[in-house]
Amino acid sequence: MKVRIIKKKKIKDLLKEVLPKWNLYVPQRNSGTDVWMEPLPKKEEPLEAALEKIVLDLVDTVISPKEVFFPQLESMFEFKDGNIQETSESSPKLIFGVSPCDLKGILLSDSFYRRTPKDKYYLSRIKNRLIVVKGCLKPPRPTCFCTSVKTGPFAETGFDLQLIDAEDSYFVEVGSKRGQEFTTTYKRYFSEPTGNYLITIKKIKTKACNSLALKVDFQKALNLMAQDRFIPEEIYRKIGERCIYCGGCLYVCPTCTCFNVVDNVKGTKGERLRNWDACIFEGYSREASGHNPRQDRWLRTARRYEHKLKFTSKVTGESGCVGCGRCLSSCPVGIGMSKFIQEITGEK
């Protein structure tokens, strides 16, 4: 893997130069304390203000960057007098500053939407993209357990470029042909590293791995979940009684792909809309007849955990959880994937 280096003070100039060619998304802090993956504006005046809000030292976006490719609400097509007009979007996108666990979430979403029947709306959005990962020197949130899932704190594959914090500079790992082309096109910002830089990078990564305090026996949990009906019903019932079914955990999750489709019709014209949905909502599994096979709360709770830790693994060979910890951070009553894993593995 090739490695380059870029001075931190050059990052904003680099972003301004690439902006005309890409829809550029970077982590930005809003007027409060939250960080969101937002597009940089093309106009000069709001651009300068947005550049001052960029956060790269500790990337902790409220919602994962999956919404760049799978929006919370999107128009699939418009129709008028029996004619249909597609509204798919395929502009080039550069996602700068993605955390390693969120990268894994994006890759899992890619895999899901590539299955037959392929989702042309999602695939059109990822057709021309470049992903720049920012490795984590320390956990972006205390609920992270990415080392247990082996999704961080640095990505091993799947990225175009990966930034590794090195005081006043970033080491830049080149992970793809497109990443190589990017560093070549903007070569005046990048230089060759000198000295024993590979040893330095290894030390940085080792120190980062050791900084994560929250660890769970993830493999044991996967093995237990693979056994049919192994998890006692009482565990699901206990969680179901505490859960207020706000859906927060699923809206912030990098790997949730559930959606609903509705038609907004006015006379002979309208549009078909797709919006995020969640399997813990009662209406998600309700049939047209009114029958609901998951009427009881605990059944929907079981569905969620079994989907993440069992069914996804069966289909893809990979877990549906990336260890970001957002579910626990967002939950008003303290329910999260790491808590569930500790419960079934007896770690508490």
UniProtKB/TrEMBL annotation:
It holds the Pfam family Fer4_22. It comes from bacterium (Candidatus Ratteibacteria) CG23_combo_of_CG06-09_8_20_14_all_48_7. Keywords: Iron, Iron-sulfur, Metal-binding. This is 4Fe-4S ferredoxin-type domain-containing protein. Residues 233-264, 311-340 form the 4Fe-4S ferredoxin-type domain. GO terms for molecular function: iron-sulfur cluster binding; metal ion binding.
